[in-house]
């Protein structure tokens, strides 16, 4: 009896069957991934902190940390100006009806109370705000007609007098690092000398550092200077009163106990 040659109709059926099986495996993997995605979305929608933390831990265990970021699924933005919520039906603070939004002040310790006492006139005139953060004590100096003229980065005489009061406080503990940070509102610079708010905020920060180092004799190795432009507002830029609070230079005494 002659042997049946391989190939032909039966071989075609075998090849087709093998291809169909591979397709079904891929389809099954896709359905599994979609199911896992919907389970994660449903779990996060419950807003249960325990479940969300467990999901984050499982993702870290599988994928590890994301390059350039210290957390997966961050719980909150670092930009304070993006976290304010307006309740429907209430006056919008800082808008046409409400008054300006005040920065939130945390309870102060003994050293901070001394700073408050030294700067009391400026605090009462809403020229200075002091708050305590995890990184240290923040002294916010409003720039409008206090430290600088609008759109300028040269220290005014009143600004120098204010820094004269702050300098002895900064000298009390030479171990503390000091960060000086410049901020602006969301309005563009209207002078031809500066291309953007980045330059304006950075130059204002360095002007404060230069004065404290050159004129008041503070150790330059303790200082750093940075400009953040309009991208980290203290309060939302929804009115001129709020924009005035965002035009500031922050002196941060780092790592207070």
List the total number of helices: 7
Q: Identify the overall geometry.
A: elongated
Instruction: Report strand order across the widest sheet.
Output: 1-2-5-3-4
In the CATH hierarchy, the architecture of the largest domain is 2-Layer Sandwich
End-to-end separation: 97 Å
What is the CA-atom radius of gyration, in angstroms?
30 Å
Judged by helices, strands and strand pairing, the structural class is alpha+beta
Low-confidence stretches: 65-93
CATH overall fold name of the largest domain: 60s Ribosomal Protein L30, Chain: A
N-to-C SSE series? Answer: HHHHEEHEHEHE
**CATH class annotation of the largest domain:** Alpha Beta
Count of DSSP strands: 5
Major β-sheet profile: 5 strands, mixed
Report the mean per-residue pLDDT as an integer. 74
Strand content bin: 5-15%
Give the total of domains: 2
Oligomer: single chain
Helical fraction equals: 40-55%
What is the CATH superfamily label of the largest domain?
A: OmpA-like domain
Key words describing this protein structure:
7 helices, 257 residues, alpha+beta, five-stranded mixed sheet, 42% helix, 60s Ribosomal Protein L30, Chain: A
Question: If you had to describe this structure to a student in words, what would you say it looks like?
Answer:
The protein is α+β, with helices and mostly antiparallel strands. The chain has two domains: 9-63; 103-254, 60s Ribosomal Protein L30, Chain: A (2-Layer Sandwich). Helix content is 42%, strand content 12%. It has a five-stranded mixed beta sheet with strand order 1-2-5-3-4. The longest helix has 38 residues, at 8-45. The protein is elongated and about 80 Å long. The chain starts with 7 loop residues before the first helix and ends with a strand. Mean pLDDT is 74; it is low at 65-93.
């Amino acid at each position: 009896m002659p042997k049946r040659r391989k190939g032909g109709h039966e071989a075609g059926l075998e090849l087709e069957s093998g291809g169909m099986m591979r397709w079904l495996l891929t389809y099954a993997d896709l359905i599994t991934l979609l199911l896992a995605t919907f389970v994660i979305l449903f779990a996060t929608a419950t807003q249960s902190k325990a479940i969300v933390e467990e999901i984050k831990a499982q993702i870290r265990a599988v994928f590890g940390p994301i390059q350039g970021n210290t957390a997966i699924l961050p719980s909150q933005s670092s930009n304070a100006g993006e976290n304010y919520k307006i309740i429907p039906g209430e006056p919008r603070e800082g808008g046409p009806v409400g008054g300006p939004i005040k920065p939130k002040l945390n309870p102060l310790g003994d050293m901070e109370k001394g700073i408050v006492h030294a700067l009391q006139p400026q605090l009462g005139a809403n020229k200075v705000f002091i708050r305590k953060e995890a990184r240290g004590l923040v002294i916010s100096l409003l720039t409008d007609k206090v430290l600088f003229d609008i759109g300028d980065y040269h220290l005014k005489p009143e600004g120098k007098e204010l820094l004269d009061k702050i300098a002895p406080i900064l000298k009390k503990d030479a171990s503390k690092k000091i960060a000086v940070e410049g901020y602006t509102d969301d309005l563009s610079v209207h002078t031809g000398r500066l291309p953007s708010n980045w330059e304006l905020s950075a130059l204002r920060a360095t002007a404060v550092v230069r004065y404290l180092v050159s004129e008041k004799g503070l150790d330059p190795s303790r200082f750093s200077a940075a400009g953040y432009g309009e991208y980290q507002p203290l309060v939302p830029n929804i009115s001129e009163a709020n924009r005035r609070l965002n035009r500031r230079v922050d002196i941060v005494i780092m790592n207070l106990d």
